[in-house]
Amino acid sequence: MKHSSIIIALLFPFSLLVGQSASTTIQNDPAAIAANLLSVYDAEKIFGGPAALTENTIVRKNDSQLYKCAYVAQGQDLMAGRPSVLDLSLEEFNADGSASVLFGNLRKEYESEAGFQTVFNLGSEAFFTSDNQNYYYILIRKNNKLLGLSLKKIPNSGALESFKMAAIFLNSLI
């Protein structure tokens, strides 16, 4: 049961967990800035090989804007399963406190996991979690923004260091 909630949190944008409504999704709009924050070069460093951008969207909601992008590893041996996927979500809330409440709710979901770690010196608060086989996930709250970075299907042993460096860099941009 606990693992199903982890998968749900990794697969769905932050705000879907709190039931916001009235949204508009725009694919490849110039305002969809997520792919500018996390480049194909960054994804290739994490994957250890070629990557392709598969999503770059902005979702405008009543109380927030959600920027998302996703990269898929190219050229991986798919006989071993599905390719690695790197997702970035940046949600900027209009109301003070909304990001903090959502961060707290997500933290509660993850903190009992064996791979959970509080991360210091990133944003206002942050945490990292991983099962060290299938995924890495970091969530950073900085004032009224939530930045989530996830890597599904860890491609190689060097991915963790590149993933952490990307999170540090992204934190400096928000």
Write up what this structure looks like.
Strand 5 and strand 6 (125-130) form a beta hairpin. The longest helix has 15 residues, at 159-173. The chain has an eight-stranded antiparallel sheet with strand order 1-2-3-4-8-7-6-5, with helices on both faces. The protein has one domain (2-173): Protein Transport Mog1p, Chain A, CATH 3.40.1000. 34% of the residues are buried. Helix 3 runs antiparallel to helix 5. The radius of gyration is 15 Å and the shape is globular. The chain is an alpha+beta fold and 174 residues long. Helix content is 29%, strand content 33%. The termini are far apart. Residues 1-24 have low confidence and may be disordered.
Distance between the termini: 34 Å
The SS-based structural class is alpha+beta
| Strand arrangement, major sheet | 1-2-3-4-8-7-6-5
The portion of residues assigned to helices is 25-40%
CATH class category = Alpha Beta
Which descriptor suits the 3D outline? Answer: globular
- What ranges have pLDDT less than 50 throughout 5 or more consecutive residues? 1-24
Describe the biggest sheet?
8 strands, antiparallel
Number of domains: 1
| Number of discrete helical segments | 5
CATH topology: Protein Transport Mog1p, Chain A
Topology pattern, helix = H, strand = E? HEHHEEEHEEEEH
**How many whole angstroms does the radius of gyration measure?**
15 Å
Query: What's the CATH architecture?
Result: 3-Layer(aba) Sandwich
Record field, number of beta strands: 8
**Beta-strand content bin:** 25-35%
Kindly report the oligomeric state of this protein: single chain
> What is the average per-residue confidence, as pLDDT, rounded to a whole number?
82
